[in-house]
Amino acid sequence: RLEIRELEKNKDQWNIYLLGMRKFQSMDQKNKLSWYQIAGIHGRPHVAWDGVESADGGGGGYCAHGANIFPTWHRPYLALFEEILYLNARQAVSEFPNGALKDRYSAALATFRMPYWDWAAIPPEGEGVYPWSVQREKVDVVTPNGTETIANPLFEYTFHPLVPSDMGGHEWSVFPTTLRNPSSKQENASSQNDLVSHQLDSMRPNIQSRVYNVLALQKDYHNVSNDMVSGDSLESTHDTIHNYCGVGGHLSKLDVAAFDPLFWLHHANVDRLLAIWQALNPSSYVTPFKSPWATFTIPRDVITDINTELKPFHRNDDGAFWTSESIRQTSIFAYTYPELLNHSIESLITKVNALYGPDATPQWSRNSLSAPSNLAQRATLSPNRISGTPNFSGERQYMASIRVCKFGLDGSFNVYVFLGDSGEDVTCWTSEEAFVGVTGILATGMKDEQGSGDVTGAVPLTAALEARVRSGELKGLGEEEVTPFLRDNLKWRVSKTDGKAVDVESTPGFRLSVLVARVQPARSANEFPKMLSDYEVLAEATEGKPGGFRPGDPL
Length: 555
Prior knowledge:
Elements: H1 4-9, H2 11-26, H3 35-40, H4 70-94, H5 100-110, E1 138-143, E2 146-151, H6 164-167, H7 193-217, H8 221-225, H9 234-246, H10 261-280, E3 289-290, E4 303-304, E5 309-314, E6 321-323, H11 345-356, E7 396-405, E8 413-419, E9 435-441, E10 454-460, H12 462-471, H13 479-489, E11 490-496, E12 501-502, E13 511-520, E14 530-531, E15 536-537
Antiparallel strand pairs: 1-2, 3-4, 5-6, 7-10, 7-13, 8-9, 8-11, 11-12, 13-14, 13-15
């Protein structure tokens, strides 16, 4: 599987990708293998797929979130999507007349796999993190009839028809297409991709730092796999991308997110990051864990483990299901990722450092042909901004750890961290000079006040603190300097994904703590920094603040 910008450079594979996506999305929604029904496995409309019925005590869609099988459940889900996409692309190629062009497309089909979107790496110069190719409303493709301009299947999915009862009410029952940052909650709303682009660019450096922390420092699968444990995880970072691509649109609503074409590019990257982490840590994998809430086939409080059936994904015609054990290696589905080709541990560490580490650089060249004519070239972010990429030159790493009730605000929401004051306009928070980072909580409308619904996220603080050292506002990075500085300057705010600010004290279960750990800096490009201690709480940094950590609080 290639990064979407790299796939786009292969004109033949890109063309059959778009043709296959168009065919996939145009399938009758009553067809079990249609876009509508495959997307519906994840959440709405909460009906059985492929004959796999709901369990007693089950609820919601099939997707596993907040669970040890969150990343592994999505692996066969992506493989199913990829197989159907391939079949549609193959059908599109078969419709070309015999000749050199058809031969080219047939050859391209042989190695075609679905792409991923790397939302953490530094984008090509002049481009933002949000690919041009998913923002265009129209796109040119080569068909058996010549070059045609079609609706871009990466821009949105059009329901045909929209079934309001399937969508669970509210705006989801009136939007005829998937939307990103919708301009309103009315039927005629449109996507505001320019705003999505701007906010993703503002938060990307902190996302890069979060990904690097997980890949370089986390050694236990359980901590990486889900957002129920203290600190950061792939799932929490994944939630943040969902919320910042959806911004009140489909991607920021767990139940309807999979209808948006961007969902599949996003989750392919989550799977890639999991595969990279697995290659770095081959001995750590799924261990037993109590499910914090129900899915369609797994009741709440059931223990899931490496042999739990990943329903509704059948492994064979005999009715057996895939498990985390059987999908441990991506090769079972005949795909891999560029970083994992003929890799050694040292070479993989070098690649991770080049992509996400302190000295990371853009790994792809710009593909200017994909840039829509009505979109401006991205501006470089101000060097005065204090959020930033990972820096492990020092011996301390600081992190804001957030614990909050997942369903406490009746939908998805975000927690923002600042070193200083912020304005009242939520849409400008990621552009504030004081902005450090944000973590998102992806949820449904199931309000849950119980502690078992708590999830965690994190915002790395080290790069922002180092920027304050360089500016002279902070004397050093020792706890004796950082603690009083954070007590005076660290602030946090909460907003729902529709842009409404929420009082921290009205956010159920909210607690923010500052954690610090000692690290040994890496000595070369093929090494990671090493943890020399567990994270400890700097209780005085948040003492007396609304939602701040208090002694005795869970981390």
